[in-house]
Amino acid sequence: MFTRRDSSIRSLPDLSNCRVAVLSGSIQETLFASMVKGFDLGVELVPAPDYDSAAKAVRDGQAEAMICNRYAGPHLKKKYDLGDTAIIFNPTILNFAAPNPELRPLLDVMDRYLETWKADRGSVYYTILKKHAGEAPAPFVPHWLRIAAVSLAGALLIAAMVALLLRREVARRTVELRNRTRELEEALQSLHEAQAMALQQERLHVLGQMASGVAHDFNNVLMPIIGFAELLLDQPKDRNDPERLQEYLRLIAKAGQDGQLIVARLRGFYQTRGEIPAWTQLHPDQIMQQVKDLTQPRWHNMAQNDNITIKVQTDIQETPPILANATEVREALVNLVFNAVDAMPQGGTLTLAVTSDPDTVHLTVKDQGIGMPEDVQVRCFNAFFTTKGPSGTGMGLPMVKQICDKYAGCIRMTSRPGSGTSFTISFPAIRTPGPSPVSAGQPEGGIRPLRILIVDDEPSAVDVLATILSAEGHLADGADGPFQAMLKIREHHYDLVLTDQVMPGLAGTQLRRRIMKQAPGLPVMILTDVRQDEWKRQYPSEPDCPFLEKPLRRQAFSRILREMGIVQKPITI
Question: What pLDDT score was predicted for residue 421?
């Protein structure tokens, strides 16, 4: 029984002469009417079509109280701001009945379903109660679900703690990594500085070796200058003889000119890098002749002082020019010559040769010295490796190789213990203009003009290759490393990528794989020091990769272009 909050109804006798709202046609209406008649309370029943209407009647003063079941009561009390009483009206049990005994199985089915629905808090039974009564029993939470929820909460808590610990660990490791990176950068900078100092020391060492021989030659130059000058000072009669005076002065002038040549050769060897362009067009035969003149005092004096015989043979042919720095090429050859002289303590033959084929110029320094065992041959180009003890810097051959790489060249060595050593440095030849059936500015052999991207970490090598390919009629563009190359490929169209194999950060073969993913169909050719018979052994995962041996040879370049099928493609320039 529910009333308004300000009602004084607290017990059954308080209902006397009151209006009570009941659900029309319900069992409550029938039973309540019978009860008030028996107690002679004089209660007026107000039938309502549903519980909401009965509650509204109480709220609006149309009835003083209402009868409601236990399911709808609390909901309606809250909804219409009603008050409850202590009156619990006639608890009842509702049963289904059937007049025909044959319908008993139907009643059993109803009982079974009701029993099942009441056991399931999410069943249609409670759904209907909630719909019509406004309240359903507290939802039933299975035990396993509670365990799962607690477990999940625990797992989330543990995960949060682990994440916090990992975040702290990552932050700590990040700081350590930054510190380690800074230390490595400082160590790398120190290594570069040490290497630069070692190269400088090697140059000074070579210059010192040359100076000892140059001093001998310079003394020979000073002898006629001082001798004839003293004669003229001490012998007045010679000064009065015009013919003799003119002869003495001519010999003094000739000696001075010889001294000037010695100084010029010495200065040319050690000319600073800022005094000449990074690369110019050079004539290798002239360079080799200059190297012979520069090094002659060293091997000539060594032969005299040690009472040995060092014979010098030359095969210096006139060749096409190359693109390089004259000072650095001389420096590389002088280093090789001095190494050859050091390798012949008992004397022997020193051979200096300059030869060429249509695409390449070869400069060779060969000795008949003690040779090198295999373990030394493997390591001789490594920085700071030396077999000369404290007197060696270990930077001579690495410097030579660095110079070759810088100008798109290569260095090859053959050596056998007891039989001597031969070093050959090769550079791409620059073809001079001349009569040719091929028109100027067009590639040879029917090769169409190509837009080529050259990738090398040595800017000078890019310049050399670009000049050669431009002379062949191609459009050459340069990138100073793999990462700049990827950016240029993304922004521009190219018909071919020509990349060096050995580069910091990313090798040429690795760059090729990235290009194949980013720009499928763009051909990539590798420029390498590795010979054809060694490629598959050193790079077994790249057996079909198009590659070209250094230095660049036009005929080989054209052949590989045909093998790659580039000739048949339409012109895109």
Answer: 93
